[in-house]
Amino acid sequence: MSTPVSLADRTETYRIGSGRVLLTPTPVEHIVSWKLSFRTLPAFAEGEELVQELVVHLLDKGTRKRDRFAVAEVLENRGARLDFSNDGLHVRVTGRALRDDVPDVLAMLAEQLREPLFDAQEFDKARAQLAARFHRSMDSTSSQAASALSQRLYQPAHPNFTPSPAEHLAQLQTITLEQVQAYHAAHFGGADLLVAAVGDADASAFVGALERSLGDWPAGSTQGPFETQGAPQAPARVAVPMPDKTNLDVRLGQALRVRRQDEDYLPLFLANYILGGNFSARLMAIIRDEMGLTYGIRSSLNGITTDHEGDWRVSVTLSQDNLERGIEATQAEVRRFITEGATADELDDKKTTALGSFTVGMATTRGLAAMLLRNAERGFEVSYLDAYPDLIEGVTLDQLNEAVQRHADPDTFHLTLAGQLPTPTPAEAQP
Amino acid sequence: MSLPSTRTVPDGVDFVEVSGGIEAYRLTSNQLQVLLLEQSAVPVATLMVTYRVGSRNESVGLTGATHFLEHLMFKGTARYNKEDGTSIFNALQRVGAQVNATTWLDRTNYYEMLPKEHLPLAVEIEADRMRGARLAVHDLESERTVILNEFDRGANEPTRNLYHAVWSAAFVAHPYHHPTIGWRCDIEDATAEGLRHFYDTYYWPNNATVSVIGDIDREAVLQLIVERFGAIPPSPHPIPEMRTREPDQRGERRVTVRQAGQLGSVMVAYKSPVAADPDTDALDVLATLLTTGKGSRFFRRLTDQGLTTGSFSGVSRLRDPGLFYLFGMLAPERTHEEVEAAMLDELHRIQEEGVTEAEVARAQKLLAAEEAFGRDGPYAVASQLNEAIAAGDWTLYTTFLERIDRVTAADVQRVAQAYLIEDRRTVGWYVPS
Q: Which residue in A has a C-alpha nearest to residue B98's C-alpha?
């Protein structure tokens, strides 16, 4: 295994206001990538995440100093990009620019974050755009199955709960521009502001530009409450019938009582790799390779953070002809894994896989910036990334199998599916 | 440009040229092309083998063969196989490799991105399966249902169905007519003999390019490639040429896709020249200024005005003439007629009035930034290089920016007038039912 030079040694940390900037120069020419985030803490049960989504949608629709086209001109004439996204507890920005343009682009970013225009016409357009997105997600078997699973596993106050597209549409119509402005005023600010930058960056230019534009950004004052655990519902099978969709998306999942900082997390992370983490994992090897039942099957630990718990889920796509056979075979493999556990050879294999993937994940400036930001959001020092290979190597087979036994139960997996059902099944619940 | 005098080339390798930092070589024993680019930012390397065979090389009744074969190539060889616990995925993923393959109109590519010390394993496996694939009957049967599920997944997507419907209407003779995954009945009927014949026809070193990008020692990598690939003989027959040319289109074609769904879309496409034609560069600039970013013409005219929720466009850079295409995704309560009319009107304005130098400069800057970020990491480079190899000239990748920089506003207006005309046009509507 290659051991890159310590990230902690290569990464400088700077303070701007109450936020932190992590800057890692790499030997690429001309380009700088960065990820920025700050905590917003919407009240999920009250639908504030959708309000936050609208705020994010309006960030590139003009500022108090320039309209949406002037904003676009600043960025596009430099070939730069700023992508704003809503990720529940955080708002994130993915940015990139050529080295010499970085100060101008960061100044533009700060202006967009701090002084959005919130024009009434643009608000109406943003609402229409979001409505269209929800309409389109009604056509997606993947979105529908995932949304249905989230509603089995979580209560509306949990950050991982996803309302159905129809519920989102109804809620969207009730949101006003005044709510959006008030949410921005209360929740957007420099609280826990984090920036990770990687590439051909001039440290003084990068940090100086951020200090000038965001150094005095006051913290948002309002924090919404949120659930940290999954909902204790009895397992169920939920179908979302969708005409003209002969491929069905199926999800099996159960909530896990684990957070990212817990001792059981890394053993479960490796257990997931063995069950369905990649092409050579059990689910692909058996359900796809041996049985030929699916093009795509994988398992994942989903939505687990240092703030809240998440779930373990299997995602599989099945053609109508193979639906029940595919579900039964998948359930059998999940049951076998949980009851019989993994083998020492499997653990050794997946440790190497996980560490190789970790190295490969740092191969781009964007990938490394994302890794640094995610690590910092968890409250971990950069040195955690340097220690990560040893932490993975240190997981024993007993730890892994005991963690699986402690947290997973094959009898409590929920099952959701979306698509054109082979035959009417009136007994199945409609979400 | 020649190789630096300090560099030595192993026996069995001929240096050919260098462009944009990428060095090109050929193995003397079998004419395998080798491309090397050193990037030492992280201790990672990408190996990619590009075969110059795609769905363009398939005939009626055998559509989808290239893609089917790509799947079977992972079923292994005598040395690497599941029965012995050495499946290709297992062998590579256990060392942390990202492994996959893709098939497209003009090419098939296999790649591994992995920690650099494991590069020899990837080279060994790719060399082994170039001529040693098992292609067993039982593997074909289990993989057939996998591919049929992949087909069904794609068929769920109306926009994808619209894209294929437009290409099928635009091309009546040329194999770009059929989708790369093939027609469903051909997937159902594919035989081991047919796929074996396809493999024996096209999978040879003289029809392939090996690219290695990343934190590499170039001389050591060349030596490794000679050792692993050098003993494979060249094809015992010439690689067959695909000679079908699409007849001139003599009028607009229209196609409608009806499928359950919520919001419709419009695709407008025009016949466009081959990848290497300078007019394709001008069409690339045109596509960029039409739909990239909020300063683009279609954003201002369509999305900002509430006609669409988004638009995108592109010019296919292929070995044979392809399509310049534009997509408009309808906003709720908007009609196909008004979106299509607005799209065509904007194109008409460009034909009549041209574009500004500022628009061209903006498009060039956006493309330059894309190119710079397209060199961010070895896989990003490999994936772009792959398309240039497929189009017939890998230096199309390294010379891209200088060609784009030569495009003028007059060029953009000229190609709009020459190519975006009714007789070359195919229009498709996705109509939710």
A: A357
